[in-house]
Amino acid sequence: MIKWMTKLFSSTPKEENTEDNMKPEVHEHQKNNLKNVSKKYLIVGLGNIGAEYVNTRHNIGFKVLDFLAKKEGLSFETVKLGALAEYKFKGRTFLLLKPNTYMNLSGKAVKYWMDKENIPLENILVITDDLNLSFGTIRIKPKGSDGGHNGLKNINLVLNTQQYTRFRFGISDQFKKGQQVDYVLGEWDEEEKAKLTERLEVASEIIKSFGTAGLENTMTTFNGK
């Protein structure tokens, strides 16, 4: 009798103790917002605006995005702090951004569009040139220093972090002492031009892979190639 009375008064209705009732309610619009954020990517190509810079080594970020846009029939629209094109692929949305702030203020455009589109840091890919890699060599890294690159330096400063993915495209360092600026802001030579289209094709695949296969798989597949 005592055991029965103890059991009776100590028991709690089942519905009050279930884990489901202890979880916060997530409304449908909240689920949709989380879903959309995870499938949206900001792809930033670094470069300088102006016709005189179009075919220069320093503008490889713009070049990659222009190549992908032309291949997929996309158009860039002039927007705040840059030019933007939207690319849909396998359920993902890629926002292709070419900042118009000039290289050393690139972070301003990255931060603005990252916040405006509610894109998480891990879904950002920044494409830049790299003197320390031979022509066309690809290096994808999840973080790192600016390596002396003014565009990355400003992005690091504005975002207050180095924890974002960067896609470095090698332009080599075949210049004489004191001629680095002329080399970087110079146009591709004939040998480089002949090989550039194939490298741009690979770069386009990297962008798609970043959003669909993930960073680790993309690094494994493309780094050093």
From TrEMBL:
<dbReference type="InterPro" id="IPR001328">
    <property type="entry name" value="Pept_tRNA_hydro"/>
</dbReference>
<dbReference type="GO" id="GO:0016787">
    <property type="term" value="F:hydrolase activity"/>
</dbReference>
<keyword id="KW-0963">Cytoplasm</keyword>
<keyword id="KW-0378">Hydrolase</keyword>
<keyword id="KW-0694">RNA-binding</keyword>
<feature type="binding site">
    <location>
        <position position="150"/>
    </location>
    <ligand>
        <name>tRNA</name>
    </ligand>
</feature>
<comment type="similarity">
    <text>Belongs to the PTH family.</text>
</comment>
<feature type="region of interest" description="Disordered">
    <location>
        <begin position="1"/>
        <end position="30"/>
    </location>
</feature>
<comment type="subunit">
    <text>Monomer.</text>
</comment>
<keyword id="KW-0820">tRNA-binding</keyword>
<comment type="function">
    <text>Hydrolyzes ribosome-free peptidyl-tRNAs (with 1 or more amino acids incorporated), which drop off the ribosome during protein synthesis, or as a result of ribosome stalling.</text>
</comment>
<dbReference type="InterPro" id="IPR018171">
    <property type="entry name" value="Pept_tRNA_hydro_CS"/>
</dbReference>
<feature type="active site" description="Proton acceptor">
    <location>
        <position position="58"/>
    </location>
</feature>
<feature type="binding site">
    <location>
        <position position="102"/>
    </location>
    <ligand>
        <name>tRNA</name>
    </ligand>
</feature>
<protein>
    <recommendedName>
        <fullName>Peptidyl-tRNA hydrolase</fullName>
        <ecNumber>3.1.1.29</ecNumber>
    </recommendedName>
</protein>
<dbReference type="Pfam" id="PF01195">
    <property type="entry name" value="Pept_tRNA_hydro"/>
</dbReference>
<feature type="compositionally biased region" description="Basic and acidic residues">
    <location>
        <begin position="13"/>
        <end position="30"/>
    </location>
</feature>
<feature type="site" description="Stabilizes the basic form of H active site to accept a proton">
    <location>
        <position position="129"/>
    </location>
</feature>
<feature type="site" description="Discriminates between blocked and unblocked aminoacyl-tRNA">
    <location>
        <position position="48"/>
    </location>
</feature>
<comment type="function">
    <text>Catalyzes the release of premature peptidyl moieties from peptidyl-tRNA molecules trapped in stalled 50S ribosomal subunits, and thus maintains levels of free tRNAs and 50S ribosomes.</text>
</comment>
<feature type="binding site">
    <location>
        <position position="53"/>
    </location>
    <ligand>
        <name>tRNA</name>
    </ligand>
</feature>
<feature type="binding site">
    <location>
        <position position="104"/>
    </location>
    <ligand>
        <name>tRNA</name>
    </ligand>
</feature>
<dbReference type="InterPro" id="IPR036416">
    <property type="entry name" value="Pept_tRNA_hydro_sf"/>
</dbReference>
